[in-house]
Specification:
Elements lengths: L16 H8 L7 H13 L17 E2 L5 E5 L7 H4 L7 H12 L20 E5 L12 H17 L5 E5 L1 H13 L16 E6 L2 E9 L4 H4 L6 H15 L6
Parallel strand pairs: 2-3, 2-4, 4-6
Antiparallel strand pairs: 1-3, 5-6
Helix pairs in contact: 4-8
């Protein structure tokens, strides 16, 4: 049987808090429906991956503990991260994401296929609003709510974040709620989701955070042309401009 090993740069921080979060997430059992679905998919598998030992559990975040860019997606794909155990790894959405991250200097490789493939992120961290693969990619409101504390724990550990990229409407709403609950000022009327929609959230005594929305690189969006590669590249080009200091004369 083919079993994948730990990530090249597993989550960690100076006090080890991200490592503790990453160790705790796979043990989460708050959503029985999702846990059953992940286990069923892991047992039945897809023919192309029949030699894999599926992860089949909640998936922790992945990336640079000092990241200034935090990317929040919807949930693991049934035969993607639910199989590999690493966010956005092993499916077409991940192919799009890692290609764009690599093109803009956030990933060391243009693809991500397994936890032991040597992929490393630089200045970026990947999470999801829901950590288990949901049936038909549709988590319930209650499941999203029960998963929200994992994002909050990661937010507290990721002390350098300046930009949050939310992939899709569910991630966008989850990010707004996360930052509002953390004390960031959300404008009224509340920002609306739209590709490349950009909102600066004042943190009171903390540095502001920029929330940048993007269509999710799902097949539903990429195969219909709703999201094209130039459109997706534009998201991370914008992030790079934000994070790159303007030279002083």
């Amino acid at each position: 049987m083919r079993t994948k090993k730990s990530a090249a740069n597993p989550p960690r921080s100076r006090d080890g808090s991200l490592a503790r979060i990453a160790a705790a997430i796979p043990r989460c059992a708050l959503c029985p429906r999702l846990r059953r679905h992940c286990a069923e998919v892991a047992a039945s598998k897809r023919r192309a991956f029949r030699d894999w030992t599926y992860w089949g559990r909640p998936v922790p975040g992945f990336g640079d503990p000092h990241a200034r860019l935090w990317i929040i997606g919807l949930a693991p794909a049934a035969h993607g991260a639910n199989r590999t155990g690493r966010m956005f790894t092993g499916d077409s959405s991940g192919d799009w994401l890692f290609r764009a991250l690599h093109a803009h200097g956030f990933a060391h490789q243009p693809g991500s296929v397994a936890r032991d493939d040597g992929q490393r992120l630089e200045d970026a961290f990947l999470s999801a609003a829901v950590r288990c693969a949901p049936p038909d990619n549709r988590p319930t409101t209650g499941e999203i709510d029960r998963c929200a504390p994992w994002l909050e724990r990661e937010r507290q550990a990721l002390e350098s974040v300046r930009v949050v990229v939310a992939l899709g409407q569910i991630a966008f709403r989850a990010s707004l709620r996360l930052l509002q609950d953390a004390g960031y000022h959300v404008p009224r009327p509340q920002p609306r989701f739209g590709h490349l929609a950009c909102t600066t959230l004042d943190g009171g005594g903390n540095d502001p955070i920029i929330l940048l929305a993007s269509y999710h690189p799902s097949r539903q969006n990429t195969q219909t042309g709703r999201l094209t590669r130039p459109m997706f590249d534009a998201v991370f080009a914008a992030v790079r401009r934000i994070l790159t200091p303007t030279p002083t004369r």
